[in-house]
Amino acid sequence: MAAKATQAAKSMAGKAVKTAQAAQAARATRAAAKAGASGPADYDAIVVGGGHNGLVAAAYLARSGARTLVLEARPKTGGAATTEAPWPDAPDFKVTRLSYVMSLLPPTIINDLQLERHGYKIYPMGPYYQAFPEGGSIKLYADDAKRNHDEVSRWSKKDADAMPRWDAWLAGLADVLGPLLLTVPPNLGSRKPRDLNETLRLAWRHRGLNVRTIADVTRLMTMSIADLLDDWFESPQVKGALAVNGVIGTWAGPYEPGTAYVMAHHSIGDVGDGHLGNWGFQEGGMGAVADAISRAAREAGAEVRTNAGVRQVIVENGRARGVVLGNGQRITAKVVVTSLHPRTAFLDQVGRSNLPDDFVTDIEHWKTRSGVVKINLALAELPDFTADPGTNPQEHHTGSVEMAPTMPYIEQAFQDARNGIPAVKPFSDGVIPTAFDKTLCPEGYHIMSLFTQWVPSDWNEEPHTDELQAYADRMIDCYNEVAPNFKSSIIHTDVVGPYQMEHEYGLVGGNIFHGELSLEQLFHMRPAPGFADYRTPVPGLYYASSATHAGGGVCGIPGMQAAKAAIADRRTAIRRR
Ligand SMILES: Cc1cc2nc3c(=O)[nH]c(=O)nc-3n(C[C@H](O)[C@H](O)[C@H](O)COP(=O)(O)OP(=O)(O)OC[C@H]3O[C@@H](n4cnc5c(N)ncnc54)[C@H](O)[C@@H]3O)c2cc1C
Fold first, then answer.
1. Which of 418, 469, 543, 577 has its CA 20 to 30 A from that of 47?
2. Contact 173/166 with Cβ under 8 angstroms?
3. Ligand 1 atom closest to residue 56's alpha carbon, by position in its atom list
4. What is the Cα 381 distance to its own chain's centre?
5. By the 8 A CB rule, do 43 and 333 touch?
6. Strand partners, 557
7. What is the pLDDT of residue 238?
8. Vertex 278 angle, CA 144 and 121, to 5°
9. What is the position in ligand 1's atom list of the atom closest to the CA of 309?
10. Separation between Cα atoms, residue 62 and residue 68, nearest integer Å
11. Is any atom of ligand 1 closer than 6 Å to the C-beta of 50?
12. What is the spatial distance between Cα 100 and Cα 375, in angstroms, rounded to a whole number?
């Protein structure tokens, strides 16, 4: 008995020693991982993906003194912020091929990176314009309350009177939501002192909110844009015009809960002219925004390599150590920042075995549909609207030239796609950047960009080339109904659907934001609970894509925040050493 007891005690003691040794070894591995101590690295920081967020991250990292390398798979940087000449026989015609207007890039980034010195130049857009198939038109001005009142009065006096209150209501919400965009979401539910501290700080910062404002934010987060607009307005024309921002890039019609927030996301930026919700055209197209950021990054010392696709993120001893390129080249770094779609970044390149199971499941469940088709056109002349005649440049050519006459029209386009067919009558958010920007095509011609929805959400799986052309023809017919010269004015057409967005630009599922802006994918849930602070489950790996909080859109915030997190962690590690 006694011998057995001694043996048992010895075995327990042995187990305890082993457990202690294992814990010590794990601590040592974690400490080594945290300190980044495993021999010299080729670079301090590698940024995977040269979209605008990757470039912003690189600029901030390089400015902090880090030797930084950007690796971009395509022959050019910019990702979805790209200016291209899609017609080989007409190289003088350039289109802003995917994203098309600016509003969300905050002054902090513009100033920190001195983007204006590097070529960032915005022309504020003119009014929203919709010409109606049954006759007449409406213009909505973001910056002129008097003209807005006059315009809206033509459709509803009641709505015209409601408009200033609506604008003030939105401005009040922007005061709450705007700063939240620049807030790093706290890790809600975590009991770690740092996370609790961050949660309390967020609560403290919002201590001034009253019952009314919290109710308004709750409504915004939970309502459909249709229900919200029904509470405010009566005229179908006004509601149609205001509903567009609620469904941009979204796999949801205007009657779906959550679309009110999408409208707010698109309404809380300004282009620096002080008018909330105003949008603008970058001279040279959206590629010029990325080029300006790239110049800032390179001036700060970052190296930018194109045609350099990354195949794998190297994880050793539980820590990111660098990357392997498609050609097999291994490049090491103390820190890796990835800006790719979450499925590519984590499931394909980091690998499931290097990630916690919960996180893998969250990324597998990530919703990434859009059903967006971008149609870029070269025009021999401007659209001559029956309601506002003339092919000479006029105010209504300078803003959004919409094809979204009413909410039921928009809803029907979504219902078609949800039922598995491309919209019979798609809706479009159209713009004519050449109303201001003379750099995109030869004098006398114009470029028109149509952001349209919807085709079925699985069209990322096959090219659907002929059907996309037929869809584009129907879209053009819709405009032709209100501007009868439209069809005959088109000299070149470029149609980019979900398959091309996924396979050429890495936008998995064709989603324009690397993931839907649905409620369960916002703030502390973006891209996964516990990892909304631009860090990832792998120490040394940071996440800067539009699939993090404040994305999507060309806002650069994910890039800035990921770089700041990497810089802060590095400084803490150095201080500890
Ligand atoms: C049709 C369309 C219209 C839009 N309109 C607007 C708009 O008007 N205004 C607005 O603000 N936003 C708009 N958006 C959204 C906005 O463009 C995106 O949210 C934003 O550009 C994404 O930036 P990003 O840097 O996070 O990612 P991306 O731009 O997707 O950049 C990721 C980069 O990684 C590269 N890459 C992919 N795989 C690899 C690899 N293996 N190795 C190395 N590099 C790789 C890609 O080529 C790409 O350059 C639009 C998007 C689309 C598609």
1. 577
2. no
3. 25
4. 32
5. yes
6. none
7. 95
8. 115
9. 42
10. 6
11. yes
12. 11
- Residue 17 in this model has a pLDDT that exceeds 60: no
Distances (CA, A) of 21 to 7, 12, 27: 21, 14, 10
- Reported as type and span, the H/E element at residue 453 is strand 446-453
**Interval between CA 552 and ligand 1 midpoint (Å):** 9
Q: What is the pLDDT of residue 23?
A: 46
Mean pLDDT confidence for 437-450: 97
Mean local confidence (pLDDT), 98-111: 93
Query: Using a CB cutoff of 8 Å and minimum separation of 24, what contacts does 210-214 make?
Result: 213/172, 213/173, 213/176
d(CA 264, CA 225): 10
In SS3 terms, 159-228 reads as: HHHHHHHHHHHHHHHHHHHHHHHCCCCCCCCCCCHHHHHHHHHHHHHCCCCCHHHHHHHHHHHHCCHHHH
For the chain, the maximum distance between any two Cα atoms, rounded to a whole number of angstroms, is 106
How many whole angstroms from 54 Cα to the centroid of ligand 1? 10
Three-state secondary structure call for residue 535: strand
Q: How far is ligand 1, taken at its centre, from the CA of residue 506, in Å?
A: 8
Mean per-residue pLDDT, 282-306: 98
C-beta of 99 in contact with ligand 1 (< 6 A): yes
Contacts of 50 (CB under 8 A, 6+ apart): 70, 71, 72, 74, 77, 78, 79, 290, 294, 304, 306
Tell me if 224 CB under 6 Å of ligand 1: no
Ligand 1 centroid distance, CA of 181 (Å): 19
Sequence-distant (6+) residues with CB within 8 A of 361 are none
Can you tell me the distance from the alpha carbon of 178 to that of 256, in angstroms, rounded to the nearest whole number?
A: 24
- Whether the CB-CB separation of 53 and 559 falls below 8 Å is answered with yes
Residue 178 tokens read as 């705007």
Cβ contact 51:80 at 8 Å: yes
